[in-house]
Amino acid sequence: MYVMNVLARHGSDVQKRDYLTKIAAGELRLQSMAVTEPATGTDTTKLKTIAVRRGDRYVVNGQKGLDFASPHSDLLLLLARTTPLTEVRAKTDGMSVFIVDLREAIGKGMTLRSIPTW
Fold first, then answer.
1. Which residues are CB-neighbours of 35 under 8 A, at least 6 positions away?
2. Which residues pair with 100 in a beta bridge?
3. How many Å apart are CA 6 and CA 36, to the nearest integer?
4. What percent of the chain has pLDDT above 90?
5. For residues 11 and 58, what is the distance between their CA atoms, to the nearest angstrom?
6. CB-based burial of residue 104 (10 Å sphere; 0-12 exposed, 13-18 middle, 19+ buried)?
7. Given this model, what pLDDT does residue 32 score?
């Protein structure tokens, strides 16, 4: 409910058309959102994960935690800073949500690691 709502409310028309129709048809799974980080916890204003634009793509560097749904999802919504905290007026500025295709990203710069916690 929370993950899908971010895309439904804030996604572009193209993203909604391309992703939501496939999700509704059962062809694509979006159940995962990476927000929290080991060093900052749920204080999202202090995110350490950064995204830097390189041509028509972004390169994301950082570490996320407590995302139990990733193994069951094709897509991941990832929260990252696109403007450093020191360069924004309000601490909530400069953050962006990215749609990551896990089927393409895992093993090509992205690693999922299970941490037994329960």
1. 42, 44, 64, 79
2. 76
3. 16
4. 65
5. 17
6. exposed
7. 87
